[in-house]
Amino acid sequence: MSENNLSEKSCCFFGHRNTPQSVEPLLTETTEKLILEQNVRYFYVGNQGNFDSMVLSSLKKLKEFYPQIEYTVVLACMPSETTDKKYGNTSLYPDGMEYVPKRFAISHRNDWMIKHSDFVICYIRHHFGGAYQFVEKSKRKGLPVINIF
Predict the structure, then answer these.
(1) CA 8 centroid distance within chain
(2) pLDDT tens digits for 90-104?
(3) The whole model's pTM is what?
(4) What is the enclosing helix (H) or strand (E) of 61?
(5) How much is the pLDDT for 82?
(6) What is the rounded CA–CA span in Å between residue 18 and residue 53?
(7) Tell me, what's the pLDDT at 31?
(8) What is the DSSP string of 88-141?
(9) Minimal CA–CA distance to 90: which of 43, 122, 51, 48?
(10) CA distance 103 to 130
(11) In angstroms, rounded to a whole number, what is the distance separating the alpha carbons of residues 10 and 125?
(12) Which residues are 145's β-sheet partners?
């Protein structure tokens, strides 16, 4: 269970960098279903690749209809002026990340998202790569995983 209010759940996302744009409607529909049926209020997303961009776009649209939801772009690298301008107050740089070697930063960030989530939505079409690795880790931790592939 996440550290949020027990009745309000959270979700993170993992997907391939080159996920096709055609996935976005299903991504939005799946996310909306979690909001309505599972009381998911908090969403955590990375900022690498097309999948993460689609997630962020979907969450911005959904926030217009469900103002109670909150989404956070979880950063793997130290925030800069550029990231601050791009994400504003919707980004988070987890405590301790400044001590993580750069080559492990994305993995550490993904572990943080898993730890703080109750659900995972993913787009996994092959059994290798970082997204696949973290979906498998989520399953081992007992999180429900919804693959929209």
Answers:
(1) 16
(2) 999 999 999 999 999
(3) 0.92
(4) helix 49-65
(5) 83
(6) 11
(7) 98
(8) GGGEE--TTGGGS-GGGHHHHHHHHHHHT-SEEEEE--SS-SHHHHHHHHHHHT
(9) 43
(10) 13
(11) 24
(12) 120
Other beta carbons within 10 Å of 27:
22
The single-letter DSSP state of residue 67 is T
Q: What is the DSSP letter of 77?
A: S
Task: Please tell me whether residue 15 adopts helix, strand or coil conformation.
Answer: strand
- The CA distance from 6 to 3, in Å, is 8
Please give the Cα distance from 14 to 98 (Å, whole number): 22
pLDDT number for residue 80: 84
> What are the tens digits of pLDDT across the range 37-79?
999 999 999 999 999 999 999 999 999 999 999 999 999 998 8
Cβ(10)–Cβ(117) under 8 Å? yes
Amino acid at 63: K
The distance in angstroms from the start CA to the end CA of the chain is 26
* Cα torsion 91, 22, 110, 130: sign: negative
Please give the structure tokens belonging to residue 86: 């791009």
Q: Which CATH fold would you assign to the domain 9-147?
A: Rossmann fold (3.40.50)
Question: Where do the domains of the chain lie?
Answer: 9-147
